[in-house]
């Protein structure tokens, strides 16, 4: 659980920059992915290869048939899925800490948020791409049902060999659960991206939407006035 705790702490640091929908994604990631995979997933798939039984004693036949049935172990595939999904968020946290540590780059919170938002949006886009890619990969590699019987005809097996998978129903239920969680996670990520694009970057500090008219500063032409966001022509001001 140590490596999962480190990953959870990295993801938890992202919530400082996330909108509310992004925090919902974080809850789904921590509870229904990392926690479930660390506590339940390891028990479901720990005997995957040991309990893969084939009706032959031919040396080398069982490993070849297992490789044909499961090109990548279910558990390793799901762990790799979580790591890749967490990578954009972890890279963003590292970048944000690096920017805050630069001399003269701290600034006000609004300025920091404005500088970091494009990189956060990029991390959300990378997360969506990884999510959809792994969902497609899971469907193509394993489908949605673990078959109790796998028929193998690969060499060095001398003939058709029947191999049997342990606890296929339990593994099927787990795969369905994990796929549904992936769909929910992808929808939350898309909603977060839409929210960020609609909201736009934070307003620049000191600027207002309707600048008030001020008198001309010394040396400034009489036809211009300066508001909080800079000089404005007199004709553009709202009286």
Automatic annotation (TrEMBL):
Connexin N-terminal domain segment(s): 43-76
Main location: other
Domain Connexin cysteine-rich: 130-196
GO biological process, one term: cell-cell signaling
Disordered: annotated span: 204-239
Gene3D superfamilies: Gap junction channel protein cysteine-rich domain (1.20.1440.80)
Membrane topology recorded in Swiss-Prot or TrEMBL: Multi-pass membrane protein
Pfam family, one: Connexin
Single Gene Ontology MF annotation: gap junction channel activity involved in AV node cell-bundle of His cell electrical coupling
GO CC field: connexin complex
Compositional bias of kind Low complexity: 214-228
Zinc as UniProt keyword: no
Recorded family membership: Belongs to the connexin family.
PANTHER family reported for this sequence: CONNEXIN, GAP JUNCTION DELTA-3 PROTEIN
Quaternary context: A connexon is composed of a hexamer of connexins.
Protein name, per record: Gap junction protein
């Amino acid at each position: 659980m140590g490596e999962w705790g480190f990953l959870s702490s990295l993801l938890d640091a992202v919530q400082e920059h996330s909108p509310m929908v992004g925090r919902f994604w974080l809850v789904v990631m921590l509870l229904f992915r990392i926690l479930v995979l660390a506590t339940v997933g390891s028990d479901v798939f720990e005997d995957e290869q040991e309990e893969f039984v084939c009706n032959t004693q031919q040396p080398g036949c069982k490993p070849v048939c297992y490789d044909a049935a499961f090109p990548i172990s279910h558990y390793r595939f799901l762990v790799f899925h979580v790591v890749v999904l967490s990578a954009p968020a972890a890279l963003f946290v590292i970048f944000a800490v690096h920017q805050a540590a630069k001399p003269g780059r701290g600034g006000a919170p609004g300025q920091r948020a404005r500088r970091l938002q494009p990189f956060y949006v990029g991390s959300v886009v990378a997360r969506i791409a990884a999510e959809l890619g792994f969902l497609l990969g899971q469907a193509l590699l394993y489908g949605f049902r673990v078959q109790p019987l796998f028929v193998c005809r690969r060499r060095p097996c001398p003939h058709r060999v029947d191999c049997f998978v342990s606890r296929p129903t339990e593994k099927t239920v787990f795969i369905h659960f994990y796929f549904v969680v992936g769909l929910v996670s992808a929808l939350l990520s898309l909603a977060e991206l839409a929210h960020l694009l609609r909201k736009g970057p934070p307003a620049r500090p000191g600027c207002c939407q309707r600048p008030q008219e001020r008198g001309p500063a010394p040396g400034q032409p009489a036809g211009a006035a300066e508001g909080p966001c800079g000089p404005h022509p007199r004709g553009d001001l709202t009286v």
